[in-house]
Amino acid sequence: MKRTIVVTGAASGIGRATAEILEQQGDTVIRVDLEKGDVTGDLGDRDAIVQVAQKIADLSGGRIDGLVANAGVSAPTPLSPKINYIGTVLLIEALRPLLAESDAPRISVTTSAATLQGNDEKLVDLLLSGDAEAALARGAELASQGPAVGYANYSSSKRAISRWIRRVAPTDDYAGAGIGINGVGPGQVRTAMTKELFASEEGRKQAATAMPTPFNGPADAEDIAAVHAFLVSEANSRMTGQIIFVDGGFDAVSRGDDIWGTA
């Protein structure tokens, strides 16, 4: 059955690959990006998000079947929490009424295997509490200590959105409304952003040390896109609140065989 799916960050990388897969299978895709797309806007700006949501409503006739919330940045600055968490949550919430009109509404969010390393729990807690001003101030504090410490802006914003997904998934607003919401956590991915890193032997070794990928090495954007496409399909009728690590085995390497702890 033909579906209408919104894909953010659709001008390049994982977003573009996802949009292409969805279109190839017959879905209508509304592409959202900063400058190039069916709808354009800065998803780090609250006012722009309101306008983006309205444009999506106009284009879709007030109903969408899926959202791939892929837009994000890896900057070691407060830009990461602003877009990866604050803007992502605001857009999902703004589009929830449109999703509720669908017979099989689904959301898939791009998170990251970086949630398993280098996090700042204070920043995570501030984001989850909804204190955007304090969260951005904390992000600025981390960034002021250099890129190594500032990296926590990225990993922590992705951890926060992953926890938010699990928090809202079983609620009346989501599960109760038939809206499934999951996350996809890529590991090493060959995109324009990582092209320079993977171009040299030194860069490849650095990447492998930071995030080992024993199963088939770094992914292509299409590998991540295929998982997004399934998660926003009608076929995904029971999975919600899950973070699917598409990381070549990094999760298993870093967390081992028992991630459940004790009750």
Walk me through the structure:
With 263 residues, this protein is an alpha/beta fold. The chain has a single domain, classed as NAD(P)-binding Rossmann-like Domain (Rossmann fold, 3-Layer(aba) Sandwich). It is 46% helix and 14% strand. It is built from eleven helices and nine strands. It has helices spanning 13-24, 46-60, 79-99, 121-129, 132-143, 147-150, 152-168, 195-198, 201-210, 221-231, 250-255; strands spanning 4-8, 28-33, 39-40, 66-69, 106-110, 180-186, 189-190, 219-220, 243-246. The strands form two sheets. The chain has a seven-stranded parallel β-sheet, sandwiched between helices. A two-stranded parallel sheet has the order 7-8. β4, α3 and β5 form a beta-alpha-beta unit. α1 (13-24) packs across α10 (221-231), α3 (79-99) packs antiparallel against α5 and α3 runs parallel beside α7 (152-168). The longest helix has 21 residues, at 79-99. It is globular, with a radius of gyration of 18 Å. 49% of the residues are buried.
